[in-house]
Design goal:
The strands form three sheets. This protein has a six-stranded antiparallel beta barrel with strand order 10-11-16-15-14-17. Helices cover 39% and strands 21% of the residues. It has two domains: 145 residues, 3-Layer(aba) Sandwich (Rossmann fold), CATH 3.40.50.10940; 314 residues, no CATH class. The protein has 17 helices and 18 strands. The protein is α/β, with parallel strands linked by helices. 50% of the residues are buried.
C-alpha cells in the first residue's frame, strides 16, 4: 500500500523572444542530461515558452505527459508574463531556476541574462499570488540545476500529497489535551480534507470487522513481525480485527482524495470497550505510510504525513517528554560527546513507533493507563503497546500547527537519537538537538506548541523548511545556534 504521491517532474525552458531560442533549448537539454546521469527522474517538455500561445501548448503537453510537478527553467532572460501565467495555470508545485553563464568565451551572442530575468519572474509571481519554490541560490550551470531539482522533488511530493489528503478523526479531542483542540479551518486553506467521526463510529467498524477473512492474515503478519517479542499471542486477533477495520474504513472513505491519515481517540474509554490499547496497530499503519496520531491530534497526523512524504520512510509521533538525569548523562559521556544536558530530552510515546524504527521491541502494556483502569491487577485491557528503544541515528522533529485564531505556524529542528538506554517504558529514546533547551523555551513554550512532535528518521530540515515556505507559512521556527538570540531571550544569562 502506498499512501504517498508519485512525482513526475517536468522541465520546461522559457526564452524571451529577443534572445536566441536555441540558447534556452540547448541549456534545457544539458540540465535533462545531467539529471539522467545523476539518476534524477525528469521529463523533458519540448515546448519552449516565448509567448502566451506557448502556455496553452505547454499545458497540453504537460497533461499528455502526466507531469504533476514543474520546473520552469530560465535558459535566458525569459518572458516573465507567460512564464508566470504557466505557473499559475499549472496548479501544481512549481520551481523556478535560471541558467548561469557557462564560459568567458561566449558572452556576446551566448549571454542569457537569466540572473536578471529571475528578478522580473519573481516580481510577477507575486502579482499573480503564485507561491513557487525558488532555491536558496537559484542560478546555476547544468549540474547545479540538476541538484536543485533533486531537492525540489520531495518538496513537490509533500505538496501534491497535502492537496490530495483526507484526515480521518475518531472521537472528540480530549479535554485534558487542549493543545489538540486546534481549529480545522486552516486544513481547508491547505487543501486538506477532514472527516470527523465519533468513538461510536470507531467501535461500530471494529465490531463489523470481526468475521472479515483478512483478520487471520493480519494476525499472522503481526506474529511474524513481533517474533520473540510476541508476549501476548492471544491478544493478536483483536488487534488484527482493529487494523482490518481501519484499513477498510480508509479504503471506503477516501472519496475524492487519494491519501489518508488518522487522528484517533485512544483512551480512557477506548480500553474498556475494545479490550486493548491500539498502539501496536498504529505503529503498523505508520509502517504502511498511513500515520495514526494519538489523542485525536489532527495537526500531529498532518505533521507525521509531511514527514512520511518527505522521507518515504516510516515516521512516528512522540511526546517531548522528560529530561535526561545528570547521572545518566555522566555515565554515557562517550556517547553524549559535546552535547550539554539541556540539549537532551527523552522522546516517548506509549508504543506507536514502527518496529523498523526500534532497536528492541516487544508487545507490552501501557503502564500509565493501567494505573487508572486496572490498578494493581494483571494487565488485560491495557495491553497492546509496542515497547522498545528507538534506534540510534538521524532525526528531524517538526510540527505544523494552527493557533487558536486559525493562523498556521511551524517548527523544524535536526538532531539524533543517542545510543543510550533510557531505562524506562514505552517507545522511547534519548534525543539530542543542539541548543534544545533554548529552542524548548523560546519556541516550543513561547509560541505555545503542543507536546506532540512528528519525527522523521532522516535529516530533512532543508526539505521541510522549503515545504513550509511553499505552503505560505510565515512563522517558521528552528533551533538557533549559540550567540544568536530568539526574540525575547535574555542576553545577559
Amino acid at each position: 500500500m502506498r499512501n504517498i504521491a508519485e512525482v513526475k517532474t517536468g522541465v520546461i525552458a522559457v526564452s524571451r523572444d529577443c534572445f536566441p531560442i536555441e540558447l534556452a533549448q540547448k541549456r534545457r537539454d544539458k540540465v535533462v542530461e545531467k539529471c539522467s546521469k545523476k539518476q534524477i527522474p525528469v521529463t523533458k517538455l519540448e515546448t519552449v515558452i516565448e509567448h502566451e500561445d506557448d502556455v496553452l501548448k505547454a499545458l497540453d503537453e504537460i497533461k499528455a505527459k502526466d507531469v504533476n510537478a514543474l520546473v520552469i527553467y530560465l535558459g535566458n532572460f525569459g518572458p516573465e508574463g507567460p512564464l508566470t501565467m504557466l505557473a499559475q495555470k499549472f496548479g501544481g508545485p512549481v520551481m523556478l531556476c535560471a541558467a548561469a553563464e557557462e564560459t568567458k568565451d561566449d558572452l556576446l551572442d551566448g549571454r542569457g541574462d537569466a540572473y536578471c530575468g529571475m528578478l522580473n519572474a519573481s516580481y510577477n509571481l507575486n502579482l499573480r499570488k503564485v507561491n513557487a519554490h525558488i532555491p536558496e541560490y537559484p542560478v546555476g550551470i547544468a549540474p547545479e540545476i540538476a541538484d536543485m531539482i533533486k531537492d525540489f522533488i520531495p518538496v513537490a511530493r509533500v505538496i501534491i500529497g497535502l492537496k490530495n489528503l483526507k484526515l480521518f478523526s475518531f472521537g472528540p479531542r480530549p479535554q485534558d489535551f487542549l493543545v489538540c483542540n486546534a481549529p480545522i479551518k486552516p486544513l481547508f486553506d491547505l487543501g486538506v480534507e477532514i472527516m470527523e467521526n465519533s468513538e461510536l463510529d470507531l467501535y461500530d467498524i471494529f465490531l463489523k470487522a470481526k468475521d472479515d477473512p483478512a483478520v487471520e492474515t493480519v494476525e499472522k503478519e503481526m506474529a511474524a513481525e513481533l517474533g520473540a517479542g510476541n508476549t501476548y499471542p492471544e491478544l493478536l486477533k483483536k488487534l488484527a480485527q482493529y487494523e482490518v477495520a481501519l484499513i477498510k474504513f480508509y479504503e471506503d472513505n477516501l472519496g475524492a482524495s487519494e491519501f489518508g491519515v488518522f487522528a484517533n481517540k485512544c483512551w480512557p474509554a477506548f480500553e474498556s470497550y475494545f479490550g486493548f490499547v491500539p498502539c501496536f496497530v498504529n505503529s503498523r499503519l505508520a509502517s504502511k505510510g498511513i500515520p495514526v496520531a494519538c489523542e485525536v491530534d489532527i495537526y500531529g497526523a498532518l505533521s507525521e504525513y509531511i514527514a512520511a512524504a518527505a522521507t518515504e520512510l516510516p515516521v512516528t509521533l512522540l511526546d517531548l517528554n522528560n529530561s535526561v538525569p545528570y547521572d545518566m548523562v555522566e555515565v554515557a559521556k562517550a556517547v553524549v560527546k559535546n552535547y550539554k544536558p539541556s540539549d537532551l530530552f527523552m522522546g516517548f510515546h506509549c508504543g506507536n513507533t514502527p518496529s523498523s524504527c526500534l532497536k528492541t521491541f516487544s508487545l507490552q502494556y501501557q503502564r500509565i493507563m493501567k494505573r487508572i483502569l486496572e490498578g494493581d491487577g494483571e494487565p488485560d485491557i491495557t495491553r497492546g503497546t509496542l515497547e522498545g528503544r528507538i534506534r540510534p541515528g538521524e532525526l528531524t522533529i517538526l510540527r505544523l500547527q494552527s493557533t487558536a485564531d486559525a493562523q498556521l505556524k511551524a517548527y523544524v529542528a535536526e538532531g539524533e537519537i543517542l545510543d543510550i538506554d533510557p531505562k524506562s517504558f514505552g517507545g522511547i529514546g534519548v534525543v539530542a538537538i543542539p541548543e534544545m533547551g533554548r529552542f524548548y523555551r523560546h519556541v516550543l513554550l513561547a509560541k505555545h506548541f503542543p507536546h506532540h512532535t512528528a519525527v522523521a528518521f532522516r535529516y530533512v530540515g532543508k526539505t521541510v523548511f522549503n515545504i513550509f515556505k511553499m505552503l505560505g507559512i510565515e512563522d517558521i521556527s528552528f533551533n538557533l545556534p549559540k550567540g544568536v538570540y530568539y526574540e525575547g531571550e535574555n542576553p545577559f544569562l
